[in-house]
Amino acid sequence: MSQHDPNVANGDGLTVRTGIVAALLAILSAHSGTADPTYKVAGMQWYRTDVPGTGIWTKYEWDGASAIVLGTLNTSTHKWTPAAVPSVTADVFLGTGANGVNDQTGTSYTLVAADNGKLVTMSNAAANTVTVPTGLGAGFACAIAQIGAGQTTIVQGASATLNARNGLKLTGQYAEAGLLWRAANTYLVAGDTTT
Question: What band does 79 get if pLDDT is binned at 50, 70 and 90?
């Protein structure tokens, strides 16, 4: 484990060689050490071998202003544990979370705070909508799936903002999209959607 500024000072051959070897060792050891590197640049990653304690290393990435925790590595069990991602869990997108599934059969449904962590399904032969209201709360996340033949459209309620790359309509039967809280009354829609 090693840390060394990648800028190697001019000097005699041995001094320069020693500096290059130290910089390469730092790169090869992922800039690991018992302190944060003093030479951070945006996008750089490193391990702190003393946080949280013996045998557990914490991996960080510098975003240009602060260190972001990426996860931990248990050096005894060789297990990587990613840092918790706010508002998003695999259970939400798989519909297997403790909160379960909210099956809807009508042509319209407005999300409620209790839908956080749930898979909301829309099963109707006619076109249908899921409205995203304001006030769902920080960290809200759910999955929305079109189970019926009628196309499901995700609609923003008054004063809510939805951001989506591909549109707010699910692409067809069994399509699914995730709804993720980004900021107060602002959500990201990502998944099998179209315009």
Answer: confident
Q: For 3, which DSSP code?
A: -
Predicted structure pTM score? 0.53
DSSP class of residue 84?
P
Closest CA to 57 of 77, 41, 86: 77
Q: What DSSP character marks residue 38?
A: S
Q: Which residue in 177, 185, 143 sits closest to 161, CA to CA? A: 185
Burial (0-12, 13-18, 19+ Cβ within 10 Å), 89:
middle
Left if phi > 0, otherwise alpha if psi is -120 to 50, otherwise beta: which for 44?
beta
The values of phi and psi at residue 24, to 5°, are: -65, -40
What CATH code would you report for 90-194?
2.60.120
Task: Tell me how far apart the alpha carbons of residues 109 and 10 are, in angstroms, rounded to a whole number.
Answer: 68
- Alpha-carbon span 120 to 173, nearest angstrom: 14
User: What sign does the dihedral 113-130-102-105 (CA atoms) show?
Assistant: positive
